[in-house]
Specification:
Blueprint lengths: L13 H17 L19 H24 L1 H36 L4 H5 L4 H4 L1 H9 L10 H10 L1 H8 L3 H18 L15 H21 L1 H4 L2 H22 L1 H4 L4 H7 L9 H17 L13 H8 L1 H21 L4 H29 L11 H8 L4
């Protein structure tokens, strides 16, 4: 089959790094309960949140990085590089999983707080440690807040053949993704979790945002240009975002919810995150289109110093995400030990984000040190240098 996808232009798209860094900050803040700084994150003002953004950018970046490699060096090379990334994600998950549960167990014993074991869904480790750890290794057992990385691992693991087909039939793959999404919602498809239940992020549904990100990168943005620039979309999109704001606020504040008809309120509350409700997908797609319209890739503001910490966190996303999940537990526990005042909440949140930036800057510096320094040019004999300058050699 001939190639029909439009490959992204070369060079790094700083918008991806910027928004992925912001998403990591939001995820860290959202994982800290009873924290007033949470009100800075988008989950309070619309149907979609940082998780939607993270998955979309993951799909966009995967196609951006590996599509050209697969075309130039063959499917096998592209697939093995993708699987290498999957292995890195898996190792990071296992490392985070072990550190996370050990820390929770230590805190529970040290501070005589057994309730925290149930709160973070690690009680099974006490009753059946070997089986629980085994299930954790195969991604079926997940403590609270460790759901995103297993989803990312599964989506990337199945991506090589999907990317091969998307390079040749991008619209067909997008349609198939939609069919799988609606079928999973209709028939209740999901992966089993341990010890009971199913995955919090249903991969059969969340694959839609991942594939949409890949499709958007491989020509979907160009195909949608007339829609993105449409005045009708601008008006309808803003209206839908305002509607989403009202429905979300109704779920947060009972007084607002009481003003709405029960049938309307119950259609959007609670927000179906597990199966990625259609209204949630539409909300994110509109945001993606509006950002593409008003924030071009060559926007000079991306070079502003104020955005540099966010961009750095986006460029070192895996490390920042893992540290952020761990720090969110630490921050949560520190709030329970302290007065929990607004000042303490703000200080803990700011310190946590500062630590994420430290991790990002350190990883950037460390990766530069791993690269061999440029070789010095050999010194030229004065006569040869003069001849070269004169264009004689």
């Amino acid at each position: 089959m001939s190639i029909r996808a439009t490959l992204p232009s070369g060079g790094r798209d700083l918008r991806l790094d910027l928004f992925r860094g912001i998403a990591n900050w939001w995820i860290f803040l959202d994982h800290i309960p009873y924290n007033i700084v949470n009100w800075l994150t988008p989950r309070n003002y619309g149907f979609s949140d940082a998780a939607d953004l993270f998955v979309f950018i993951s799909g966009y970046t995967a196609s951006f990085v590996y599509a050209r490699m697969m075309l130039e060096r063959g499917f096998l090379v592209g697939a093995t590089r993708l699987m290498k990334r999957v292995w890195q994600l898996y190792v990071a998950h296992v490392f985070l999983f072990v550190i996370y549960i050990v820390t929770i167990g230590f805190v529970a014993i040290k501070f005589h707080d057994p309730d925290i074991i149930n709160e973070f869904n690690v009680a099974g480790l006490v009753e059946n440690p070997i089986e629980t750890l085994t299930q954790g290794m195969i991604l079926k057992f997940k403590p609270v807040n460790l759901d995103v990385l297993p989803l990312y691992i599964v989506l990337m693991g199945f991506f090589p053949p999907v990317l091969w087909l998307m390079l040749r039939r991008p619209d067909t793959v997008m349609v198939c993704s939609l069919v799988l999404y609606f079928a999973a919602r209709q028939f209740g498809w999901n992966l089993p979790a341990y010890p009971i239940g199913t995955w919090y992020f249903n991969p059969f549904c969340w694959q839609l945002l991942f594939i949409f990100g890949a499709w958007f990168a491989l020509g979907g943005a160009l195909e949608s240009r007339s829609v993105i620039q449409s005045r009708h979309l601008l008006i309808a999109g803003i209206a839908y975002l305002l509607f989403s704001l009202v429905m979300t606020m109704a779920g947060r504040f009972e007084a607002i919810g009481n003003l709405l008809p029960p049938w309307l309120y119950e259609a959007f509350n609670p927000n179906d995150k597990t199966n990625l409700a259609p209204y949630r997908v539409l909300h994110f797609v509109i945001i993606a289109f509006l950002v593409t319209r008003f924030l071009p890739q060559n926007w000079s503001g991306l070079e502003w110093k104020i955005f540099e910490p966010m961009i750095r966190c986006g460029q070192q996303s895996l490390e920042v995400f893992c540290v952020g999940v761990f720090l969110s537990f630490v921050a949560h526990f520190m709030l329970t030990l302290s007065s929990g005042s607004i000042l303490v909440q703000v200080v803990i949140s700011v310190v946590g984000i500062a630590l994420l930036c430290v991790v990002a800057y350190y990883r950037s510096w460390s990766k530069r040190q791993d690269k061999p320094p440029p070789r010095p040019r050999p010194a030229q004999h004065p006569v040869e240098a003069g001849a070269a300058d004169a264009g004689l050699v």
